[in-house]
Write a structure and sequence with these properties.
- This protein has helices at 2-36, 276-280, and strands spanning 38-42, 44-67, 72-77, 84-85, 90-94, 99-101, 106-111, 118-119, 124-141, 153-158, 163-172, 177-179, 182-192, 202-219, 224-225, 231-237, 240-245, 247-251, 255-260, 267-271.
- By secondary structure, the protein is mainly β.
- It folds into three domains: 34-50 and 212-280, conserved putative lor/sdh protein from methanococcus maripaludis s2 fold, CATH 2.40.420; 51-58 and 132-210, Efflux pump adaptor protein, beta barrel domain (Elongation Factor Tu (Ef-tu), domain 3); 63-129, OB fold (Dihydrolipoamide Acetyltransferase, E2P) (Beta Barrel), CATH 2.40.50.100.
- The strands form four sheets. It has a six-stranded antiparallel beta barrel with strand order 2-9-13-11-10-14.
- The radius of gyration is 36 Å and the shape is elongated.
Length: 298
């Protein structure tokens, strides 16, 4: 009987040791997972610039379309498609002896006539384009057009040739055009031809919207938001991970300005495991004790 009691006691002791060991192991692994579920990044001082962005296309500033003003018959065509012409060059002559001349320097891009054949009034005969004087024409909706002004500098990028240029806004339309319920205004800015730009190419126009210089910045992906959409970050305080409310400023899509709550060089934690917040703050952070001065723990 005593032997059975001793054996039973030993069994319970072993079970107890195993249970304690498992508890310690589970606790270690839980804290180990928590420790591995975030990484660290240091706040730094930097500049943030935000831009307005508009889409447009490259067009020629000078284009001449030669139309027939009356019934006429062409006796001679003096140019060919692709030929360069200068202002004053004779493009064609009529059987009546009239001469149609180029009014700009450029390249002949269209010939829509044949010798000794009559043409009707209003017929497009020849078209000339000056590819050396180019501009970008772009659209701004009614909400952003106020950011534009003539004489203002802007940046132009042309993705097709991977080039960027600086330019000056030359003109902004006063009358809008309605498309899909939104009113758009057209604007134009001059660019210089470098031999690689072609009319019709897509272009993006950017101009500065806002700027913050020498401010504390953090990557946007480390910023969290609570139920009231208030921003915060994770930080260490006395070897514990806590939530720190912050005040943010402008962002450029990658970095965000930190106005309050984090200092330059201060270490911030960001989550790899979305369950970290639940593990550390099961009450949703309502009882978190670490907030910037002046902020209330609501």
């Amino acid at each position: 009987m005593n032997g059975k009691r001793k054996k039973k006691t030993r069994t319970w002791i072993i079970i107890g040791i195993v249970a304690v060991s498992l508890t310690i192991l589970v606790s270690y692994l839980a804290f180990r997972r928590a420790d591995l579920s975030y990484e660290k990044v240091k706040a730094q001082t930097g500049d943030i610039v935000t831009y307005y962005s508009f889409s447009g296309n490259v067009v020629s500033k000078k284009r001449q379309s030669v139309f027939a003003e009356k019934i006429m018959q062409i006796s001679a065509v003096n140019v060919e498609k692709g030929q360069g012409v200068k202002e004053g060059d004779i493009l064609c002559t009529t059987t009546a002896g009239d001469e149609l001349k180029a009014k700009i320097n450029g390249e002949v891009v269209l010939i829509n006539i044949e010798e000794n054949k009559p043409v009707s009034p209003g017929t497009l005969l020849i078209e000339i384009v000056d590819y050396n004087e180019l501009e970008v024409v772009f659209k701004a909706d009614e909400y952003d057009v106020g950011a534009l002004s003539t004489g203002k500098e802007a940046m132009v990028s042309i993705p097709a040739i991977k080039k960027e240029f600086n330019g000056i806004i030359r003109e902004i339309s006063k009358e809008g055009q309605i498309a899909n319920g939104v009113t758009f205004y057209t604007a134009s800015m001059d660019i210089e031809q470098d031999g690689s730009i072609r009319t019709g190419m897509s272009a993006e126009v950017r101009l500065i919207s806002d700027k913050a210089e020498r401010v504390v910045i953090l990557p946007m992906n480390v910023i969290q938001f609570d139920e009231q959409n208030q921003p915060y970050v994770f930080k260490y305080d006395n070897n514990s991970v806590v939530k720190q409310r912050i005040t943010t400023g402008i962002n450029d899509g990658t970095y965000v300005e930190i106005k309050n709550g984090v200092l330059d060089g201060e270490e911030v934690l960001y989550k790899n495991d979305m369950k970290l917040e639940t593990l550390l703050f099961p009450d949703g952070g309502k009882n978190s004790r670490f907030y910037p001065k002046g902020a209330k723990n609501e």
